[in-house]
Amino acid sequence: MNRLVFGRYLPLDTPIHRLDPRAKIIAMLIMLVAIFLPTGYGGYIVLGLFILGTLLLAKMPFKFVISAFKPMTFMIIFLLIINIFSIKEGRLLLAYGFLEIYSGALLQTFYIVVRLFLMIMVTTCLTATTKPLDLTLGIEYLLKPLKRFKVPAHEIAMMISIALRFIPLIIEETMRIMNAQKSRGVDYEEGKLKDKIMAILSLIVPLFAVAFQRADDLANAMEARGYIPGHERTRYKVLKYHSGDYILLTIASLLLGSMIVWSIVL
Amino acid sequence: MAIKFKEVSYIYAADMPYAFKALDHIDLEFAMHKKTAIIGETGSGKSTLVQHLNALLIPSFGEVEVLDHELKAGLKNKGLKALRAKVGLVFQFSEYQLFEESIIKDVAFGPKNFGDDEATALNKAQKALTLVGLDATYYERSPLELSGGQKRRVAIAGILAMDPEVIVLDEPTAGLDPKGTRAMLSLFERLNRDFDKTIIIVTHDNEIVYHHCDNVVYLSKGKVKYSGAAKTFFEEGIYEGEDLLLPKDVQFINALKKQGFKLDTFDLDQAIKETAKVLKNE
Amino acid sequence: MKLIEVKDLSFSYDENIPVLSDISFALEEGTYTVIVGHNGSGKSTLAKLLAGLLAPNKGEIKIGGTALNADTIESMRAHIGIVFQNPDNQFIGSTVRDDIAFGLENHLVPSVKMDEIINTYAAYVSMQDYLDKEPSSLSGGQKQRVAIAGVLAMQPSILLLDEATSMLDPKGRKEVGELIHALHQKKQLTILSITHDIEETRFADNVIVLNKGKIYRFAKAEKLFENPDDLKNIGLDIPYIYELRAKYAKYGIHLRSRDIEGMAEELWQLNLKK
A134, A197, B137, C192: least CB-packed within 10 angstroms? Predict the structure, then answer.
């Protein structure tokens, strides 16, 4: 019952999965910038090919990638409707009463949607091939230079990793508390507003109470094992760059560079 | 009015690759107005079984009859909420379910959900709190102030306030010290003897099963391996060598018999009296 | 050598309600002591004080001759290992490996040495096949064993167990109990176990009985149960085997066995000899 595919991470073993999380994060950021440069469809095709290639190397199932777009469908339809009403350029394609659909509206929407798709695919590349914890470790390493600005990178990373570790347990506890309250007559689906509020309270208050107790116990356990926030610690997991990471970063940088040139030339 | 399981199976996450059959063709009847224990290893299906009793779960296959309700897979089971007032289910570590600002309000929460007005609910809450041994000085206090054992009693009061005919408790003595355990057991005795309640307890403590329960249901890997008198189950050693810790009295008397003493009682004091007699040549 | 010395220890969260009053005792190195008492007798608070997680209002704690206080606690942390009651609320790492590593990281163990230490201590508690498992797939007993491994990896001289088995099922309790027993046999650790399971006292060298924040009794297990009413008066049970002894004593039969099988045998031997 604890086999949740969390955060869209797919546990496979591919060259992309094995890359250093830092390299993947940086590459993703580079690609996001590249996507937003005004290079037109030509540029998008090149970027799209690279991204698709990465997804293929990562053995991402087609269905899985498509499912990443699902949350966006509503937004895209909404965007289309707004554009239809506000953009009156290009050829008139369809006229029905006061509704006039111009090609300009469709093209503009398409343009935005393509970039959206590319963005989603790039972020999927990252989250599907990197364990949440490795992601956290990568972020911690990248934030380290900010230590001079008093950003507690390691403590943030520690908090994130502890939070992640407890998610399955919190889900279990939520179910348990809901069951306990249902046994007292709470209906989590129907009822007047007042009842619904009580229903939510009867869930949230115990969850928080358990969370506070847990925080207290954890703090004691961590302290007893010698943890002092801010103090130096060694690390069990050490990130090391390998050749694959350099290749990825080089390709990503080259792509960005060519997109910049392309957008200027256009 | 009965509690019957007829060919009941329950499968978690049936459409997923990790589907798990928690209950496998269960045929079972719980005796009304008695105290029944449900025992079995962690993962044997005890919690799943017990959640059918107040319709938190509906069988995947088969039928469960609880009092005047019938639970069947696929049917649009209506009126389930009403069942929950008649079968009170107290979860493990129930002290975690408290949430109201005052104890009396928390205990009154259940009755209110079933339609009682404020006055009636408070009245029932007071009676329930008295049953669990918490007097009026506790009414206005915050549940968070209490010790774990006291909180648990408040949680149980919250279920008793609904005056269910059947009370089901999942590991009610887990984590309690001996004094707390004794108080809990005498509460069940009272509920059963004085109020005729049917008590069903899920427990790992075979001492409780042997000394305080009439019947026992032994679950293993989702199947019922035994359902019947508790004393018989342990005294006749029905499941030797199955990692079942026998009650200490039974262990001792078995050991005496093995050595050669002739005993035909499982009453400890009687057995001691008889062996002492033998030693003194009386 | 008295490894643990406690003198006039007092503690209260709130001035009006003392949790512990004038606690004094001393324990030899390598001994196994069980601390029993009701919930609310101050047992857990004593554990936290001994682990340096709380500071006493009065009195002092000395470990190996050094006083435990705000200045010394940091350097003494590694010597005092504590395992708590809730198996989940002390499991910090995302896997067994990561959790055992946590303490090592805090004590600045070099990364390259960590794998060997982790493997050693995981094997010690028989969890070597579970190194990459997440806590959500482990039983309570397994999580507690990992907690013990994590603590042992720092090579403490004292192991404190604060009701470490009270949230476990019988299987888990047996696993952890056997592990503690094995640790005791090796005699390299001074073990203090806080529990309300009186049966645990049978294996201990010393028993401390706390009642209402004070030490009610401090004795060897055998001596403690000679007078069963002593404990029953404060609402505590005595181990089963001592109940049996007391019952037979009423018939003038005095037995010495420490377990059920042994006692049955002893009785039969008496029967044969008569």
Answer: B137
